[in-house]
Design a protein that fits this description.
about 475 residues, alpha/beta, 2-enoyl-CoA Hydratase, Chain A, domain 1, Rossmann fold, 2 domains, eight-stranded mixed β-sheet, six-stranded mixed β-sheet, 16 helices, 20 strands, about 20% strand
């Protein structure tokens, strides 16, 4: 029943299958959620990421060490030709599952051999606009020994005195970056390459901009990808050399003094390392983007009436979960239903979205839902014209709900917010969710159902935190 991102689902006499078989969705650590839908619906496919050929866990440190010691990576040459008064190690924030706790000792050992002591090293967490990282979060991520050994920072995104202004690119993108990162003689980036709505894929230079940028720079760079001149084909899953956000970031990084080295990963589920690369940030990003595209891009299919997306393997951050839905929006026909199955951790609920704001939006009920659905278009245009800071969030909120109904099963979010989050309907009961989807499809009109002979078509993406659908995937 399941399929990979690169293999067709089988012969036409098997797919679509009559009735709706049970599908299991990853649901938190070690659990599965049984997905049962109305028998009249037709399962078109179940798209899984390609997670084969993963690196054996015990091999990781040795593999990374060999990469760094290989002259082709440029690590040895970089150390030999760079004054190493200050070194900044820049890691992604704790919502990711990059094995930084395993990579750091390998890097630190080689820095020590080059004469760099711990007192010359700054460890910087690229939080961007996410929740600041405290010591408790650092200990969970790195362990107490590494946390206490190194001087570490969570950049204060709204404190201009903590940032160096390197100038402006493209007339409207101020490059204001966290001072320990700017003033380092060598920066070592340690992150992962995952699908990203605007940058094509995350990781690489993105750890610095927007990860270590002042809010003014963060807002400006996030306008790349939502401007009228930015073509959708260059965004999610696109070529780094054509992507407008990635190219703006690359231009901004030319203003940085010193040198930068990148250690990047393509990851599966937590603990699963599919690939690790080391070297020049641009070249590492190209190689990893190609690998991520091969493993995570969904195959071409006609749009379905119902698209079901699990948020695995994201650890319960609601913002990342909604992004996973948008990553699969192209698989759903206009007027159809996008269904999110969001496992959520209480520890992650406030990472990207303020709980009080969520509750206020939830209390607005149906009037707020109508206002948001019909007002987001105007807000999107005004935010773009006036270059407002939350322009990119308004834009993607509109893209999520403008012409598709959104239903989310997330008991924790339902408990905190209630049955509505603007136009998004929240559920703590799966049967009630499927009933609501059926009502929506019935109300969509007879032309909606009659357009597809044989009933409602369904696509399922159990690990939607990894997979994605590009607009060009729709035929």
């Amino acid at each position: 029943m399941s399929m990979s991102c690169s293999t067709p689902p089988g012969s036409s006499d098997v797919w679509p299958r009559p009735g709706f078989p049970e599908v299991l969705i990853p649901w938190g650590p070690g659990e599965r959620l049984a997905l049962r839908m109305p028998e009249s619906w037709r399962l078109i496919d179940v798209t899984q990421p390609l997670l084969d050929d993963a690196l054996a866990s015990e091999e990781y440190e040795a593999r990374l060490g060999r990469l760094l010691d290989d002259p082709a990576s440029g690590w040895s040459e970089t150390l030999a030709t760079t004054p190493l008064g200050r070194v900044a190690l820049v890691i992604d924030d704790p919502s990711r599952w990059t094995p930084v706790e395993r990579a750091l000792p390998v890097v630190l050992e080689r820095l020590e051999r080059a004469g760099v002591g711990d007192d010359s090293i700054d460890l910087v967490v690229a939080v961007g606009r996410h929740r600041p990282v405290d010591r408790e979060a650092m200990v969970r991520r790195l362990g107490a020994e590494l946390t206490d050994r190194l001087r570490w920072w969570s950049p204060p995104v709204d404190d201009p005195t903590a940032y160096d202004d390197l100038g402006t690119i493209d007339q409207d993108l101020p490059v204001r970056l966290f001072r320990p990162v700017v003033q380092a003689d060598l920066r070592v980036l340690i992150g992962s390459t995952l699908p990203h709505l605007q940058a094509g894929f995350g990781g690489g230079w993105k750890l610095i901009l927007p990860g270590c940028a002042h809010r003014s720079s963060l807002a400006a760079v996030h306008r790349r990808g939502i401007r009228p001149e930015d073509h959708p084909e260059t965004l999610l899953g696109g070529d780094p050399d054509l992507n407008p956000m990635r190219q703006a970031i690359t231009r901004a990084m030319t203003l940085l003094p010193g040198k930068t080295f990148s250690i990047g990963h393509v990851l599966g589920v937590p603990g699963q390392i599919l690939r690790v690369e080391a070297g020049c940030p641009d070249e590492v990003q190209r190689r990893l983007a190609h690998e991520a595209r091969r493993r995570f891009q969904a195959p071409f299919r006609p749009p379905a009436e119902v698209v079901v997306v699990g948020n695995s393997p994201w650890p319960g951050d609601p913002l990342q979960s909604f992004k996973a839905l948008i990553h699969h929006r192209a698989a759903c026909r206009p007027g159809g239903a996008l269904v999110g199955l969001f496992w959520a951790s209480p520890d992650e609920l406030d990472r990207s979205l303020d709980r009080r704001s969520l509750r206020r939006l939830g209390r607005g009920g149906r009037p707020a839902a109508w206002l948001i659905r019909h007002g987001l278009g105007l807000a999107d245009r005004l935010a773009s014209i006036w270059k407002l800071r939350p322009a990119f969030m308004i834009h993607w909120a509109r893209e999520l709900v403008v012409d598709r109904a959104v239903f989310v099963y997330c008991p924790l979010l339902h408990q905190v917010v209630g049955p509505h989050l603007g136009p998004v309907r929240l559920f703590d009961n799966l049967e009630a969710l499927w009933n609501a989807v059926e009502v929506h499809l019935d109300q969509a009109g007879s032309h909606f159902r009659s357009a597809v002979r044989g009933g409602v078509r369904v696509r399922v993406f159990p690990q939607g935190g990894l997979t994605y659908c590009r607009p060009s995937s729709i035929v």
